[in-house]
Amino acid sequence: MSQKFAGVKGMNDLLPPHIETWQFVEAQARQAFAAYGYSEIRTPIVEDTALFVRSVGEVTDIVTKEMYTFEDKGGRSITMRPENTAPAVRAYIEHGFAQVEPLTRWFYLGPMFRYERMKTGRYRQFYQIGCEAFGAADPAQDVEVISVGQQFLKRLGVTDVVLHLNSLGDHTTRPAYTAALTRYFEPFAAVMSEDAKITLAKNPMRLLDSKEEALQEPISRAPAILDFIDDASKAHFDEVRRLLDGLGLAHAIDRRLVRGLDYYTRTTFEFIYQPQGENALGTAGTVCGGGRYDRLVKELGGPDKPAVGFAMGLDRLVLLLEALGKREASRPMLFVVTMDGPVRDHAIKLVMALRNQGLAVDFDPRGGKVKRQVERASHVRARYLFVYGDAEHQGGQVRLKDMDLPEDHPKKEQQVALAELARWLTTPGTHP
Ligand code: HAM
């Protein structure tokens, strides 16, 4: 008996025509990062589980609830990457980049895995485009990273985004803030779940990410970390803001922006899609998240190197572009209708020759009725069409039909010499 399979829940097939939007977004990312001097890296899908536990944080949602972790045949605990900052840092240390170059700027693109509750724009296999810049502690580096993100979004034509900005201070800030949060949240312990109580004891900052109903009101009034940051971090934050202003990069201070991962120090930021009207992304409006993580390289056994980066949700960007109608699927330039019989060999040869010159040319390999082939040409939305029969072959001329023009348009059909066809189709201005 045959069995029918469905894809794994939360993991999507990326198929035509949507794949073209994906490719468009990826191409724009590559161009944006190239202009800023970032090189691509590709790290494995799986890493040692401990890498994520140590970096993302033991009591984060990602580590406690969302990781795809398994034991391999050698008995090692392996995790499918839920994010790519930790793998990038691991690779940066392992391959000794700090020793050979003072500044290292990388970008990446690929699937990440989190066992999340699914909804629009939130999946279990999703894709990130991200970057990490190692070696510079200067505010100018934070701003460069933010700027490449903003430029990339601009290239995509996504403008209704607001840059949210905050600072988490340095390693001295966290203990003071944690103590204040503990004091603040303790009276609410009675309404907390057992999990939340553990979070309160282990890492109260992560309570700010809690979705528990009873905690939403207390969370909204909790102390803000920005009031606890040290003077040097405050000066850093002010300089980041000054530089952003200088570049015309508008931003909103978001005192609640602590991010769901533990490695951040100083600057944190998100780009959030906030249109005037309808929101195609619903609650999945955060298209980008990032920040500085000056201690992570050292904590993972590397040299003392500052770093800053971000990751964008590619699935969300694609959803957004498609909802905004920003992308049109590509179409063949020409469709050649073939006639059965010996002349068909010539038609196929011509199709292949034009294709080999880089033109998008289609035909129906099944041959057969002209009517069905013309229907096929409309289906693939070919711009031009002609029939290649004995008369055309012998006369060396075809009647090229512009499928975009109305039937009664004077230029609907034009006579073009077969020898001129490639030039005619590729030279702008020679045809309407
Ligand atoms: P993150 O905020 O966890 O940060 O993820 C970054 C972005 O990935 C989110 O803003 C969102 O657009 C997208 N994203 C996250 N989870 C999902 C999901 N389940 N489905 C669809 N999209 C999702 C990080 O991952 C950090 N590594 C960013 C970073 C890089 N910080 C410094 N360097």
Explain what you see.
The protein has 432 residues and is of the alpha+beta class. The strands form three sheets. It has an eight-stranded mixed β-sheet with strand order 1-5-6-11-10-9-7-8. The chain has a five-stranded mixed β-sheet with strand order 13-12-14-15-16, with helices on both faces. Helices cover 37% and strands 20% of the residues. Strand 3 and strand 4 form a beta hairpin. The relative contact order is 0.12. Helix 1 runs antiparallel to helix 6, helix 1 packs across helix 12 and helix 6 packs parallel to helix 10. It folds into two domains: 251 residues, 2-Layer Sandwich (BirA Bifunctional Protein, domain 2); 93 residues, Rossmann fold (3-Layer(aba) Sandwich), CATH 3.40.50.800. Histidyl-adenosine monophosphate binds next to strand 6, strand 10, strand 11 and helix 12.
Characteristics of this structure?
binds histidyl-adenosine monophosphate, 432 residues, Rossmann fold, eight-stranded mixed β-sheet, BirA Bifunctional Protein, domain 2, elongated, alpha+beta, five-stranded mixed β-sheet
